[in-house]
Automatic annotation (TrEMBL):
Gene3D superfamilies: NAD(P)-binding Rossmann-like Domain (3.40.50.720). PANTHER family: 2-HACID_DH_C DOMAIN-CONTAINING PROTEIN (PTHR43333), D-ISOMER SPECIFIC 2-HYDROXYACID DEHYDROGENASE NAD-BINDING DOMAIN-CONTAINING PROTEIN (PTHR43333:SF1). Residues 116-290 form the D-isomer specific 2-hydroxyacid dehydrogenase NAD-binding domain. The keyword NADP does not apply. This is D-2-hydroxyacid dehydrogenase. It comes from Actinomadura vinacea. It holds the Pfam family 2-Hacid_dh_C. InterPro entries: D-isomer_DH_CS, D-isomer_DH_NAD-bd, NAD(P)-bd_dom_sf. The keyword NAD applies. Keywords: NAD, Oxidoreductase.
Length: 337
């Protein structure tokens, strides 16, 4: 249960797992706490006795291997600098008392803008225009409207909701897929339960994946789901790579079973150079950047600093995750970035 009492006297001990780029703007945290910056190889030795682990390197797989065997040595709180928490949901952490918080809210609007840009790119064939310009070829074409086209957003958390609002404002007809069915959702209209995913994607011109990666969602877009999609439909994935069975997607794209895909996340990142996704003309590949606008790193640190102040004061933490579902406590999915 989330603590409501302040920490014991003295500054908290904060372990920061950083990647190649150190977190910027850490001065407020350093004034409030004893901060230790570590790399993956140093994490196991640093964790015992820590009051909090700040997982700034949110792509790391090292936390599970470095987690203390003794529950008493595990930090009571872990904060990750991403909305997705799938890399933290290993058994020892899920079954223990450690609180997990995420960075929900930082990426919502930027990702929604990115998805709208991808929809416009497909509809107006901008990727082909850029290719033809590079080749010096003048080729007149007609493009598609987006008004009244159907978009299905899979994942009804804050990121999915922001996407729904952006697409609806641009004139698309939006619906959703989530764990619970409902009508008249203010952001997503009609929401079908995820066991009716195939029914939902069959009606869509654009299928947008914004769901968290869980056992329930892994591989949800497979051969069967792709077979239900329209030949004119496009798939956009800004959630997690393993939501899609990539071999099935490549086959569907090659045969024209669907018209195209825009992928910001992949099973293996960076996307390996032999992957056929690089060369398919109806695919847009981006390097896991859909939420990364200017200043995003500083915003991640500000959110953590605010939560650290709350922890020290005994106030409720923001963005507490239900570890057993991969969902935040408010009931909205801890959607990935």
């Amino acid at each position: 249960m989330e603590p409501t009492q302040p920490l014991a006297s003295g500054p908290p001990r904060v372990v920061v797992l950083q990647g190649n780029v150190p977190p910027p703007g850490m001065a407020p945290v350093e004034r409030a706490a004893n901060v230790l910056y570590v790399r993956e190889a140093e994490l196991a030795d640093a964790l015992p006795g820590a009051d909090v682990l700040f997982v700034y390197d949110f792509l790391t797989e090292a936390v599970a291997d470095a987690w203390p065997a003794a529950a008493a040595d595990a930090p009571p709180w872990v904060h990750i600098a991403s909305a997705g928490v799938d890399r933290l949901l290993f058994p020892a952490l899920v079954e223990g008392d450690t609180i997990v918080t995420n960075s929900r809210g930082v990426f919502d609007r930027p990702i929604a803008e990115y998805v709208l840009g991808l929809v416009l790119c497909f509809a107006k064939d901008l990727h082909t225009t850029l290719r033809l310009q590079a080749e010096g070829e003048w080729r007149h074409r007609e493009t598609e409207p987006i008004a009244d086209r159907r978009a299905v957003v899979v994942g009804t958390g804050p990121i999915g909701r922001a996407i729904g609002r952006a697409l609806a404002a641009a004139g698309l007809r939006v619906s959703g897929v989530g764990r619970t069915a409902r009508s008249g959702d203010p952001d997503l209209g009609e929401v079908l339960p995820d066991d009716r995913l195939h029914e939902a994607v069959a009606e869509a011109d654009y299928v947008v994946l914004a769901a968290p990666l869980t056992d329930r969602t892994r591989g949800m877009i497979d051969r069967a789901a792709l077979a239900r999609m329209r030949p004119s439909a496009r798939l956009i994935n800004i959630g997690r790579g393993p939501l899609v069975v990539e071999d099935d997607l490549v086959a569907a794209l090659r045969t024209g079973e669907i018209a195209g895909a825009a992928l910001d996340v992949f099973v293996d990142e960076p996307l390996p150079s032999p992957s056929p996704l690089w060369d398919l003309p109806n695919v847009i590949v981006s390097p896991h950047m859909s939420g990364d606008i200017v200043g995003w790193r500083e915003e991640l640190v500000r959110l953590f600093a605010d939560n650290l102040d709350r922890r020290v004061d005994g106030r409720p933490l923001r963005n507490v995750v239900d570890k057993r579902l991969g969902y935040v406590g408010s009931g909205a999915p801890a959607a990935s970035s």
